[in-house]
Write a structure and sequence with these properties.
Radius of gyration: 16 Å
Oligomer: single chain
Structural class: mainly alpha
Number of strands: 0
Number of helices: 5
Largest sheet: none
Length: 107
């Protein structure tokens, strides 16, 4: 358990924080010279981003089921709540992403 607890906590931090930030930065970097993108491209990006972040709630469930120590369990649960809250595809968030990446709905 001494090895599994930190591993699950670190993996949940990677999937809730590090990978989505890295993936978003990479997506923006590859499209920085374009005047706009096709909405289908943005929706694929959003789908991958949500899929990446939603690994964290499953890790939180595993952490709860195997009975991790309270510190690691609490951290994993907080990261899972953050991932679910921040990456939830609300209409407001999708509109914001379309505006940032200049997704043209007419294409």
């Amino acid at each position: 358990m001494a090895f599994v607890s930190p591993l699950i906590f670190i993996l949940s931090a990677i999937f809730a924080l590090a990978l989505p930030i890295f993936y978003r930065t990479l997506f923006a970097h590859h499209r920085r010279h374009l005047s706009g993108i096709v909405p289908a491209e943005l929706y694929i990006f959003e789908r991958n981003l949500i899929g990446m972040a939603m690994v964290t709630p499953y890790l939180a469930m595993v952490a709860y089921l195997i009975g991790l120590p309270r510190f690691y369990l609490a951290g994993t649960l907080l990261l899972a709540l953050y991932a679910v809250y921040y990456y939830y595809p609300s209409k407001k968030r999708i509109t914001f992403e379309e505006r940032i990446f200049r997704a043209d709905r007419r294409r």
